[in-house]
Amino acid sequence: MSQPRIRIAKDKGDLVKCLVDSATAPFTTYADVIAFAAALGTNRGERRKLEGIAKEPVPISLEIFISRGYDWLIQLLAIAETKDTTILSPFEPTAEEDRIVIFEEYANAGLERLQYELRGCVDYSDRLLLFLNSIRFEKEKIPGEFDLTRFL
């Protein structure tokens, strides 16, 4: 039986490669990018189905995520989404596939957000840091109040 793989949406493949391969790349592996994107998608409560699968980078083996310690993230996202711990069962025939789909969809939503936030930038590390700080220091917005920060 082949090892399951985490797929990347076709329209996000170039972004994932740039976040690892560019001169100002903030991540060292594709698995790091996908795990970060899944956490970002979860933070925003968004999931997006994968429309097409990228040929480059190729789908990443689940073993790589396990070796980097991201298996707990995949499992926690699955439990949080389904509210059912049987999704962790090794005896449930579709449990692993369901966990992977949930993880891929959260990652796809996170990559979509990153694609929007990083559009047109040269230094990914600096822009990513600014984006994370904006999330960290996000304050309650008063409805009807004009907000100039959306132009940054």
Structural write-up:
The protein is mainly α. It has one domain (5-151). The protein has 6 helices and 2 strands. It has helices at residues 13-21, 30-44, 62-67, 71-82, 95-117, 124-136; strands at residues 5-6, 60-61. Strands 1-2 form a two-stranded antiparallel sheet. The model has no long low-confidence stretch (mean pLDDT 90).
Offer a quick outline of the entry.
The chain is an all-alpha fold and 152 residues long.
Topology of this protein?
Elements: E1 5-6, H1 13-21, H2 30-44, E2 60-61, H3 62-67, H4 71-82, H5 95-117, H6 124-136
Antiparallel strand pairs: 1-2
Q: Count every helix, treating DSSP H or I runs of 4 or more residues as helices.
A: 6
Straight-line N-to-C gap: 49 Å
What is the arithmetic mean of pLDDT? 90
- The total domain count is 1
List keywords for this structure.
152 residues; mainly alpha; 2 strands; globular
